[in-house]
Amino acid sequence: MEKRIFGIETEFGCMVRDPSVGTPEEIVEQVKDYAFYDRRYGLIDLHARDYAFEPARAGGFLRNGGRLYIDAVGSHEEYATPECCDLLDLVRYDRAGRILLSRLLKDLQLSPVVSFHNNSIDHFGGHTFGCHENYLVQLEDRFFTDALSSLLPFLVTRQIFAGVGRVGGHRLTRPSSKNNIMTLSEHEVDYVWVSNFYGVEIDPTVNFQLSQRADHIVKTISSRVRFNRAIINPKWDSYYSYSNLHRLHVLFGESNMSEYALMLKVGTTCLVLDLIEDGIAPPDVEVADPLETLRSVSRDPTMKWIVRLRNGRTISAIDLQRRYLDAAKRYLYRRDPQTDLVLREWETILDDLERDPLSTADRLDWAAKFVLYRQYMEETGASWQDDVMQSLDLEYHNATPEEGLFYGLEQAGLMRRLVTDEQVEEALTNPPENTRAYGRGLIVAQLLAHPGLRYVIDWDAIYIERNRQLDLKNPFHTYEKEAMRFLRGV
C-alpha cells in the first residue's frame, strides 16, 4: 500500500499439559530468555519501557525488526510484527511470529507438553486475548468526531470476512454472579488503574459465532483496555508518529490463521482509512448502535447479518461493506497493484458470502471452522455444547505446525496461501526492506555480533552508550545508510 504503515500485535495463550515442566508464567519467561540469550533472535531490553507493564528484560527487539516480549497483564507472550507497508510482508511476518514460538518450544524440548495458541478467547475461563492492529493515520482534531462515525460501521461489520469464529458465547455479568466463570489473577499488575470489574457466564444459547471477542467489547473507544475493552484505543505516542501522522490502535481484532483473511482485513481497513482521510467516505453508513451491531452480526445463525442504520433503515452487513467497496473502486482503482488486489478480492468475497457463505471456507477462518466442526459432529454425533468442540476450537489456533488443525487443513490443500514457507523463514531473521524496521534490524544484528555495549532500542530511536543516538522518525525511510554510519561511529 503506497502511503500506509501497519503492523500487528498478537497475544499468545500458553497451554501446559504437564505441570512438572512449570507453570504457564514460568514457561513464557523461559521461552523469552531462550529466544534472546541462547538463540539470539534479538536484543533484550536493558531498560524498563514501562515500570508496571514492561520492566527491563521483559523482552526486546528482534533481528527482523519486530518485538517479542511478555505482557505483564496476564503474563502472556506477545509478538509484534515490524512496521510494514506491503500486505504480503505483513502476512509473512505475522506467520513468522507463530513459527518462532513453536520453534523455541521444540528446541527447549517442551513441544510435546506445551503449546502456544493465538486464539482470542478462553472458553472456560472467561478471558479474552488481543490481536491489535496499528495503522499510520492522519489524526486531526476532527478524527474522533467526524471520522469515527464513518470508520466504526466498517469495523463492526468486517467480521463477515475477518472474524476467526468461535464455538459458543459469553455473557458479561456481575463478578458476584454464581455462574461467573472468570477467575482473577493474584498479580497486582493485572489490575493497575482498573476501577470496574465484570464477571463472565457461558451463554448456552449460542452454538457458533463469527467473532471471538464481540461478547467482550463494552466501549467504542477507551484508553483503558482491561475490563473496559473497546473497538479503538487511542495511542498518543511517537512510535508511529511522523509529521501530522499518528498511530491508530484497533483493539477489536482477532488473530487470523488464514493468510488470505489477514491480508483482506488489513487491506480493506487501509482503503477505508484512505477514503476517510480524503473526505470521500460513503454517506449514510452510520449504524444505530455499533456495539449491538458487533454482537448481533457475530451471533446471527441465519448468516443474513442485518444491520440497523442510524436513519432507521436496515441493510445487510454485506451491502454495507459494498458501500465502502464502491467508494474505494470509484476513487482508488488503479492507484497501485496491491490496492487493485484488495479491491478485487473484497468484491469477490462479498459476492461469495451473499451467494453461499460457506463457499469461503478455503479463505476465511470462521467458515473453515464451521465446515470442519459440522463435519466432525456429523461423523461423531457430538453437539455444539460438548466440551470437545471448545477443544477443537482451541487446537485450530495451535501455533505448532505439526499439531494445529488449521495447518492440517492447509497441508491438505484446503486453505489458500499467499506466501511461501521460504518467505516466512526469511522473515524470522530479516527485516522488511522498505520501512524503518530495516535500519533497526541492521543495528540489532550488528550489536548481537559485537556484544558489550549498552543500548536503548525503541520504535523511533536507538541509543548506544551515552553519546550516540539515531532517530527513526520517518517510518517510510529504511535508514540503511544512516544505520551504517551510526555503526561505524560506534
UniProtKB/TrEMBL annotation:
In the record, biological process GO terms are: modification-dependent protein catabolic process; proteasomal protein catabolic process; protein pupylation
Decide whether keyword Ligase is in the record. yes
Q: Which residues form a coiled coil?
A: none
Cross-referenced Pfam families, in alphabetical order? Pup_ligase
Any single GO molecular-function term of the entry would be:
ligase activity
InterPro entries found in the cross-reference section = Pup_ligase/deamidase
> What EC number(s) has UniProt assigned to this enzyme?
6.3.2.-
The record's keywords, sorted A to Z, are: Ligase
Q: Which region is the signal sequence?
A: none
Per its record, how is this protein called by name? Pup-ligase protein
